[in-house]
Design brief:
By secondary structure, the protein is of the alpha/beta class. Helices cover 35% and strands 26% of the residues. Strands 10-9-8-13-11-12 form a 6-stranded mixed sheet, sandwiched between helices. A 4-stranded parallel sheet has the order 2-1-6-7, sandwiched between helices. The two termini are 30 Å apart.
């Protein structure tokens, strides 16, 4: 019987607790540099201030080349197939570092490196999909082909009133962040081919939820909708979305999750978003 494992990174958020083959899941851990330029683990999201300050401007660092090499090289003798599913290479240098290590490693296992072009729940959905395919005993070539196809069927949109975090992450310039924060708007962003691209700005949370509803209505056959809540959940607003999904997407799984530390480092603790997975035709 073929032995298999999945390697992902700590930006992923999983939408189901009972992940098949969870014991064979390995996670590359992100961390941050604090203001004293000392390496540290990601803090709890509750410790993030609303906006970037002189005392708190997190700089996410990816696992080092040594850490990557150690994890993969020690896994090579243990498995026949290793699927490495990572957050978008447009957001983090992790993919490039892993790609460099994979090129130098040879052993028992076949390595399948895939850029999810996503993060957070979008990456988590892809990892879960991989685990489901593996549990079915599908050939490795078919699993990889299906995963690469599914990458194009997972979509994520984000919203944050804390543009200083996006500037700190290098996604917005200082002028865009300052003007956006001053106007008190709710900018919407979408991940397209792994890149964070602006969509539009709306005036309030209700308008954000209306846009989220318009977004899901563009699909006919959604398998999963995962909503990422900010540190202070916006339950009254998201209730509108949940009700709409229940009425018009009866066969679609809907879940809600608190924002994780990696995503909060990009969007701030008040950031939130939604990942949807479409069923391929």
């Amino acid at each position: 019987m073929t032995s298999t494992c999945i390697v992902t990174d700590s930006s992923a958020q999983f939408t189901q607790p009972g992940l098949p083959g969870k014991q064979c899941l390995k996670v590359l851990q992100h961390g941050l540099w604090n203001v004293a330029d000392q390496r540290a683990a990601l803090p709890k999201v509750a410790d993030f201030p609303k906006n970037i300050t002189t005392d708190f401007h997190p700089q996410i660092f990816s696992p080092s080349e040594d850490e990557i090499f150690d994890l993969i090289s020690t896994s090579l003798p243990l498995y026949d197939e290793i699927y490495i599913l990572l957050l978008s290479k447009e957001i983090s240098p992790l993919y490039s570092r892993v790609e460099k290590s994979v090129a130098t490693l040879h052993g028992r296992a076949n390595l399948h490196l895939i850029d999810s072009q996503n993060t957070s729940a979008g990456l988590g959905l892809l990892v879960q999909y991989a685990a489901t395919l593996i549990a079915k005993g599908l050939p490795a070539e078919e699993v990889e082909r299906s995963l690469r196809l599914m990458v194009t069927h997972i979509y994520t949109i984000f919203c944050t009133p804390s543009l200083s975090y996006l500037h700190n992450a290098g996604i917005l310039d200082v002028g865009q962040a300052a003007v956006g924060d001053m106007m008190g708007l709710f900018p919407l962003f979408v991940l397209e081919e792994g890149k964070v691209n602006p969509l539009q700005k709306v005036k309030n949370l209700r308008s954000v939820m209306e846009y989220f509803i318009e977004f899901v209505d563009e699909f006919d056959d959604l398998a999963h909708i995962a909503l990422i809540q900010p540190t202070t959940p916006i339950q009254s607003e998201t209730k509108i979305l949940h009700q709409h999904v229940s009425e018009f997407f009866e066969e679609t799984t809907y879940t809600e999750h608190s924002i994780n530390a990696f995503t909060a480092s990009l969007l701030g603790p008040r950031g939130f978003g939604m990942a949807v997975m479409d069923n391929p035709a």
